[in-house]
Amino acid sequence: MDPFGGSGFDDQWDTPFFFDTDDLDSSWGFEDALSGYYDSSSPDGIASSSAAKKSIAQERERRKKFNEKLYTLRSLVPSITKMDKASIVKDAIDYIVELQEEERRLLTEISELEQENNGKRRNDPGRCDPANQAAGKRPRLSPGTQSQMGSPINVMELQVSDVGDEACVVSITCSRKRNTMTRLCQALELLPLDILAANITSFSGKVLHTLLLETHGVSGTHMKETINAALTGL
Q1: Quick one: 34 and 140 in the same domain?
Q2: Are residues 217 and 112 located together in one domain of the fold?
């Protein structure tokens, strides 16, 4: 599964608004009901009518914000079965579970690749200097290997998008080099991040690391600065 990779990635984010704005403006018929209940000819009626209108405006604003959050959630999930609120939330949960399974699979592959590379280094005498080993010094890797492992990660793009008040989506695009995914995962694990789901995609010489984080009220700007500072040191 590759929910973020390939040419379909761009198409998945272009989604229509799924609630009619007329439904929001109508406030479920509250205005008509309240306007007929209060008598605007008396002082008490005027005050009550004003309070009712204020409540209607607040309710309309609340529904508008809720609708915007659902729209954001809808844009992040590539496959929505139905357009009602319950289906959108359920599909989002299922998608997060899929991402978590994908993360575990990729981390397993990374661990296997690291073990394989370590085994090759131990079995390849050309990678080590016998004189240094005899003197108890750290083995010296070949110039090509040393330059690949020591080269910094080239972060091409870092985006942080808020998803409501308690979550955000982080997208990190890097140039694909040897050990890029390993070093990137290690750097993120050192940060105090509550990762709900993650996905790593490789395409066209690039690596795209996408994470869904629980922010606990931390702003997206602060989150971006924290992650950027950690990646700068790599």
Answers
A1: no
A2: yes
* Domains contained in the chain, number: 2
3-class secondary structure, 187:
helix
End-to-end CA distance of the chain: 29
DSSP states of 104-165: HHHHHHHHHHHHHHHHHHHH-GGGS-HHHHHTTPPPPPPHHHHHHHHSPP-EEEEEEEEETT
Lowest mean pLDDT among 79-93, 129-143, 147-161, 169-183: 129-143
Same domain for 153 and 41, yes or no, is no
pLDDT in tens, 198-224: 888 877 778 888 888 888 878 888 888
- Chain-centre distance of CA 216, in angstroms? 15
b/e sequence 68-100, b meaning 16+ C-beta within 10 Å = eebeebbbbbbebeeeeeeebeebbeebeebbb
Decide which of 41, 76, 111 is a domain's last residue: 76
CA 30 vs CA 53, 58, 85, 143: distances in Å: 9, 12, 21, 74
CB contact at 8 A, 70 and 88: yes
Asked if 172 contacts 208 with a C-beta cutoff of 8 angstroms, the reply is yes
